[in-house]
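Here is the promised in-class demo. Please do not try to memorize the tokens; focus on the logic of going from shape to residues.
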């Protein structure tokens, strides 16, 4: 059967993608950020997944205020990099895994979670930047990717508990797929940041570090945190952290931390990154 072997969390800051694309990763400002992913790229090369189930949020490219799905799963075979206003990123197209995606959609919907099934969409920096951070700049991505978009842009977003329970349903779905696949689940976005208003530029390092502690050690309790606490403590865009709870819900209750990295700032955002393995 298929199995989820590891979980990854990472920020998906668009300026990080620009630094990669413009060969500025060793510039003084950016070098500390990319140093934090050196272990990750080496580990990924030694532990390649067959499929990455990648949880991210769309930034008004595939979806707009005309259509806002709370949870949307990409069930196509191919996903092109999106043009976000300055041309698509110079990265490979994403190859999906339609059979597994459809299986997950059926299983999760039958478990009482409503998903929007998407058969055609372009994927923006929310998805491609994490791939670049973990895989570098290959001519083709080394694994299949199932995009899973979560609304954390337009109120109301899903609760942390809803996301955590959804992660559990995704794990059950993957484990019932009758093919031997090594699947990783990634939760992207965050950490603390606010891009507009009187609190623009807000970074709360103490909250971020505590969030990572609790994500590892007490995810059930963390999942109960009200959404207003995310916005109060981590800024308006800090709500993206609920996507990390989908990843955590798909792992075992106890996990092993293989890598942890935190850095501020990167384009007025806190960078957080974890690699977790199931403890058993």
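The designed amino acids, position by position:
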């Amino acid at each position: 059967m298929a199995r989820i072997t590891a979980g990854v969390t990472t920020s998906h800051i668009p300026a990080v993608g620009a630094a990669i694309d413009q060969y500025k990763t060793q510039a003084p400002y950016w070098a500390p950020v990319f140093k934090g992913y050196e272990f990750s790229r080496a580990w990924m090369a030694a532990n390649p997944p067959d499929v990455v189930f990648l949880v991210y949020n769309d930034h008004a490219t595939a979806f707009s205020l005309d259509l806002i799905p709370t949870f949307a799963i990409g069930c196509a075979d191919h996903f092109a990099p999106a043009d976000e206003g300055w041309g698509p990123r110079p990265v490979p197209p994403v190859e999906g895994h339609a059979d597994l995606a459809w299986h997950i959609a059926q299983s999760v919907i039958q478990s009482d979670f409503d998903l929007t099934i998407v058969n055609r969409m372009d994927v923006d920096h929310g998805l491609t930047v994490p791939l670049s951070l973990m895989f570098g700049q290959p001519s083709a991505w080394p694994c299949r990717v199932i995009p899973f978009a979560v609304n954390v842009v337009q109120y109301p977003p899903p609760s942390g508990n809803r996301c955590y329970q959804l992660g559990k349903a995704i794990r059950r779905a993957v484990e019932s797929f009758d093919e031997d696949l090594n699947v990783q689940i990634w939760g992207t976005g965050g950490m603390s940041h606010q891009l507009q208003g009187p609190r623009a530029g807000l970074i709360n390092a103490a909250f971020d570090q505590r969030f990572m502690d609790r994500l590892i050690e007490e995810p059930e309790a963390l999942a109960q945190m009200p959404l207003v606490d995310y916005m109060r403590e981590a800024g308006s865009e800090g709500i993206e952290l609920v996507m990390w709870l989908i990843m955590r819900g798909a792992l075992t209750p106890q996990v092993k931390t293989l890598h942890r990295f935190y850095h501020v700032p990167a384009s007025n955002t806190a960078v957080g990154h974890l690699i977790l393995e199931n403890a058993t």
